[in-house]
């Protein structure tokens, strides 16, 4: 299929909607939504596990995570600018890698969104248990999941404004923590910080578990960078699409700095060996400094802010499910709407069932609830990112013909491509494999394999049924 063929109207109708003149997002809004949509309650709680795995060298893990994320966003931005259609990475995988890969990409992205909602609900429940320790975790997490579904079902006015506000709250919470630690370092609690810094590395060094600790921590670190879906649709939404690359650069830079500085702050105020995986390490660090009131405020802020990630994940999950349904790759009832607001009640019901299954399994399986959810989500993220990079490689290969000038639009985030692209793909495969050395992470991997097998079987029957319908249609025409 040549470039001209891929831009034809019939092909776009089957895989994505051509860009419309409805762009309204500014560069600042893109950066805000990008950073706010990626930083979730999962990071505020989940960073405890990689700290335990890697010790102080977890800082290197977050640098590696930022570099991998940059390559993936750069690949996605490059193809998105050349093909500004709604449907994003599923559409691009369909166009360049075939319908099966596009089908898998769409469904696995949907399931990643469901796992993200589930993990955020569990994280929120853990935050609440700081104040209500006797309440069952399953009841709290299920309640949060149900609440976010109700918010999407009934809607609230100016929800976009509320979402942006929540993004600002999360960013402010991290920046505030970093600033507060800096004040401690150079202010009235300097001796406490010095003691914590010494305890963080004494007797074990910067690599207490060697390079293996860094590699084992990467599965959870990638989860902290996973929410890059906004860049798949931003080419359609931006007032000035050429600013997409600038937005990606700023987003990755801000994310990387906030993650590294905030994790460094935790390591400076308490020994890494004492960092908990059952409560937020940020709250624990503030409690370690005997700042109980500030710890409660921080806990409340990240609890409220986690709703923005869940709300965004529900919305994107329903959108991709609707796209799959329109292409005949998901149940048709998921496109049904209700009322003047056109609430997608079919998709919401389907998503609610998925949430119930994943949250239920997470409590039945012999593994840490939270670790199971984020490890499964991270393996799906590895797959999605690998496919995005493969799509970019295919796009680049098809635009190598003399006279084509598409290469001038390649994102600067893909610095060193195509060699860096292949290195990143190899790194993803290696890190996914190395994660299997952890028992809890193996469980998430097995769940992903089982789900992928089920989806593959579903693809066979779905497309066999579609082919049969086409054949019957031709017979009736004759």
Automatic annotation (TrEMBL):
Q: Which UniProt keywords apply?
A: Amino-acid transport, Membrane, Transmembrane, Transmembrane helix, Transport
Q: InterPro entries from the xrefs?
A: AA-permease/SLC12A_dom
Where is the chain membrane-spanning? 30-51, 57-80, 107-131, 137-156, 168-188, 214-236, 248-269, 289-315, 345-366, 372-395, 415-437, 443-461
Name the membrane topology term: Multi-pass membrane protein
The Amino acid permease/ SLC12A domain extends over 30-464
Record's keyword annotation contains Iron-sulfur:
no
Location of the protein in the cell? Membrane
Q: What is this protein called?
A: Amino acid permease
Which organism does this record belong to? Alicyclobacillus fodiniaquatilis
């Amino acid at each position: 299929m040549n470039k001209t063929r891929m831009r034809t109207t019939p092909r776009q109708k089957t895989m994505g909607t051509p860009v419309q003149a409805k762009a309204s997002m500014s560069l600042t809004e893109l950066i805000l939504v990008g950073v706010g949509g990626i930083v979730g309650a999962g990071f505020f709680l989940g960073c405890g596990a990689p700290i335990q795995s890697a010790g102080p060298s977890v800082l290197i893990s977050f640098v590696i995570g930022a570099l991998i994320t940059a390559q993936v966003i750069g690949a996605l931005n490059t193809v998105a600018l050349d093909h500004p259609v709604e449907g994003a990475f599923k559409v691009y995988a369909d166009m360049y890698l075939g319908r099966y890969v596009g089908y898998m990409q769409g469904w696995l992205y949907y399931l990643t969104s469901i796992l993200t909602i589930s993990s955020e609900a569990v994280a929120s429940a853990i935050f609440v248990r700081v104040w209500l320790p006797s309440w069952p975790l399953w009841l709290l997490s299920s309640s949060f999941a149900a609440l976010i579904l109700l918010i999407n079902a009934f809607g609230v006015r100016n929800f976009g404004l509320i979402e942006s506000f929540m993004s600002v709250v999360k960013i402010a919470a991290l920046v505030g923590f970093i600033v507060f630690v800096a004040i401690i370092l150079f202010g009235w609690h300097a001796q406490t910080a010095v003691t914590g810094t010494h305890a963080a590395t004494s007797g074990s060094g910067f690599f207490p578990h060697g390079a293996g600790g860094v590699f084992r921590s990467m599965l959870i670190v990638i989860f902290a960078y996973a929410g890059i879906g906004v860049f798949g649709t931003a080419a359609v939404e931006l007032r000035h699409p050429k600013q997409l690359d600038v937005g990606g650069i700023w987003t990755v830079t801000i994310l990387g700095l906030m993650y590294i500085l905030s994790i460094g702050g935790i390591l400076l105020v308490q020994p890494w060996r004492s960092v908990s995986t059952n409560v937020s390490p940020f709250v624990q660090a503030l409690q370690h400094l005997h700042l109980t009131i500030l710890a409660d405020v921080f806990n409340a802020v990240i609890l409220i802010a986690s709703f923005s990630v869940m709300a965004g994940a529900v919305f994107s999950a329903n959108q991709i499910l609707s796209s799959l349904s329109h292409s005949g790759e998901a149940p048709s009832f998921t496109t049904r709407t209700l009322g003047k607001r056109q609430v997608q009640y079919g998709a919401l019901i389907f998503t609610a069932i998925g949430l119930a299954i994943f949250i239920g399994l997470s409590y039945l399986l012999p593994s840490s609830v939270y670790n199971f959810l984020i490890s499964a989500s991270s393996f799906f993220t590895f797959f999605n990112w690998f496919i995005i990079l493969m799509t970019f490689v295919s796009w680049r290969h098809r635009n190598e013909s003399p006279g084509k000038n598409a290469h001038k639009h390649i994102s600067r985030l893909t610095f060193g491509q195509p060699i860096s692209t292949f290195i990143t793909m190899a790194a993803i495969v290696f890190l996914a494999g190395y994660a299997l050395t952890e028992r809890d992470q193996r469980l998430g991997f097995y769940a992903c394999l089982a789900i992928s097998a089920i989806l593959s079987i579903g693809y066979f029957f779905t497309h066999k049924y579609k082919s049969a319908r086409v054949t019957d249609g031709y017979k009736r025409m004759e």
